[in-house]
Amino acid sequence: MIYEKNIFRFNIDSLAVGETEDPEVSCMTIVSSGNERTIEQIEKQLNKKLDVIKVKTFEEKDSISRELMLIKVKYNKTTRRAPRCSSASSKKSLSRANTCPFKKA
């Protein structure tokens, strides 16, 4: 007989580490998605680590989610003028907040 080991797998969507008031302790934010069992297994694995002080889980409705986009723009003297965002459709395609990303100084 061949027995297959039950392997638990999950993806980390986002990972951020920041400092706290205590220089010996860091705050780590891990974002992952899954069903209730998956989240429970992640918590259990984190609590097994000796260096972990506390694990706190937030529901999706209690969290704030933001996206960040980095854009590299190449231009020369002839294409240097900022485009004007005039139509509503172009505004929506450029940004969720419906604002023009190019503003004159």
Structural features, described:
With 105 residues, the chain is an alpha+beta fold. Helix content is 19%, strand content 14%. A two-stranded antiparallel ribbon has the order 1-2. Strand 1 and strand 2 form a beta hairpin. The longest helix is centred in the middle third of the chain and has 13 residues. It starts with 11 loop residues before the first strand and ends in an 11-residue tail after the last helix.
Query: How can the largest sheet be summarized?
Result: 2 strands, antiparallel
Rounded to the nearest angstrom, the radius of gyration is 22 Å
Which geometry do the CA atoms define?
Answer: elongated
Question: Which percent range describes the beta-strand content?
Answer: 5-15%
List keywords for this structure.
105 residues; alpha+beta; 2 helices; elongated
How would you sum up this structure in a few lines?
This protein has 105 residues and is α+β, with helices and mostly antiparallel strands. 19% of the residues lie in helices and 14% in strands.
